[in-house]
Write a structure and sequence with these properties.
Blueprint lengths: L32 E4 L6 E2 L2 H7 L15 E5 L5 E3 H6 L18 H4 L5
Antiparallel strand pairs: 1-2, 1-3, 3-4
InterPro entries: Mito_Tim_assembly_helper (IPR052604), UCP017292 (IPR016694), Znf_CHY (IPR008913), Znf_CHY_sf (IPR037274)
GO biological process, one term: protein import into mitochondrial intermembrane space
Organism: Agromyces luteolus
Length: 114
Amino acid sequence: MTHDGPPARPRVLGAVVDDETRCVHYRTDVDIVAIRFACCGEYYPCHLCHEEAAGHPARQWPLGERDARAILCGACGAELPIATYLEVDACPECRAAFNPRCRLHTHLYFETEG
């Protein structure tokens, strides 16, 4: 017997409050992204969730790893490369809007130039 449904989504750890990866810290309509942290390979909704639950310090994704699929769209479950995520305001797969204010935290997740 084959399973014809959508592939299983990666697990998202931390203080997640719904199935679109919103958390207790960020839960507006557009807070639908989880980030796979470079230090542990686990998805968390935000830096605060990682800080509270991971048990180790966060590590930024190096500039040279922008092709890593480290962004999870909570709306459709697509895993996006970092470079793609940094260039868009909505999921390229389902068009769900991402929170533009997340750009304020880019340096917490990804090495930045300069």
